[in-house]
């Protein structure tokens, strides 16, 4: 048990399934589960992330704010690794297994897919789910989230998607992003579930992370959007979600531990 990997994650206020909600951190959580690596979760509120990272020697990675999660600390090697793609590369190098997150020669492709998915899907979901995200955070994290996001985007969160018309327009763009990625995947073989064909890789975790966040943060009144996504594009995203269901889980200790990290 002493050789556990620690995954630092941003907690919700307990109002959603298994506390974890952030798509960036779900990428790493999925990667750890895919490789069957024992790990534990330490919950860190938004205002404490910078102090945490500095205290454990994690590199700054953010653009909106300097220090972000995910970060892992591997007690077996002593390594502290920031950012989901770098973490995936570290896990492959340190823990070769049946699942290779970034197969040799695909690093550029995997990194490009991650960036494109953020542009085509992530930003639309960010604005569409601004208020629901704010409402699922603990008070200190909610205040920090509001301040930093409104400062960066120069617009109050309430103005990101103030009405049904704006939300529906963002959802339409989100579906168009999924449809475009669906088309690209089919170039590799029609009917394939995974981005690289027969085996899941890091690029799949990027998409599944958005699915995990969407499922947890959509208000009840908008659950029809999830149902719509599950049937578009020949049901590809439902098949992908089903394939990853066994890995979409928070460690038992993490689901029971309600204490947050403090300096």
Automatic annotation (TrEMBL):
Name of the protein this chain belongs to: GST N-terminal domain-containing protein
InterPro entries noted in UniProt: Glutathione_S-Trfase_N, GST_UstS-like_C, Thioredoxin-like_sf
Short name of one Pfam family: GST_N_2
Protein source organism: Bondarzewia mesenterica
Residue stretches making up the GST N-terminal domain: 12-99
């Amino acid at each position: 048990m002493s050789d556990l990997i620690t995954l630092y994650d941003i907690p919700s206020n307990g109002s959603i399934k298994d506390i974890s909600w952030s798509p960036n951190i779900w990428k790493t959580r999925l990667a750890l589960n895919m490789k069957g690596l024992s790990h534990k979760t330490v919950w860190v509120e938004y205002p404490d992330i910078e102090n945490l990272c500095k205290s454990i020697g994690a590199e700054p990675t953010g653009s909106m704010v300097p220090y972000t999660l995910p970060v892992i600390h591997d007690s077996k090697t002593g390594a502290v690794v920031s950012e989901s793609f770098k973490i995936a590369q570290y896990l492959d190098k340190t823990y070769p297994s049946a699942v290779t997150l970034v197969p040799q020669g695909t690093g550029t492709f995997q990194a490009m897919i991650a960036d494109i998915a953020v542009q085509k899907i992530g930003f639309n979901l960010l604005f569409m789910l601004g208020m629901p995200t704010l409402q699922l955070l603990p008070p200190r994290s909610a205040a920090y989230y509001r301040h930093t996001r409104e400062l960066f985007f120069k617009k109050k969160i309430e103005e990101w998607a103030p009405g049904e018309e704006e939300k529906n327009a963002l959802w339409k763009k989100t579906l168009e992003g999924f449809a475009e990625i669906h088309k690209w995947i089919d170039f590799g073989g029609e009917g394939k579930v995974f981005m690289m064909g027969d085996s899941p890789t890091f690029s799949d975790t990027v998409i599944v992370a958005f699915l995990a966040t969407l499922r947890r943060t959509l208000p009840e009144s908008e659950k029809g959007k999830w149902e719509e996504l599950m049937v578009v594009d020949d049901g590809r995203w439902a098949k992908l979600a089903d394939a990853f269901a066994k890995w979409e889980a928070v460690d038992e200790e993490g689901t029971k531990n309600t204490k947050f990290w403090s300096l």
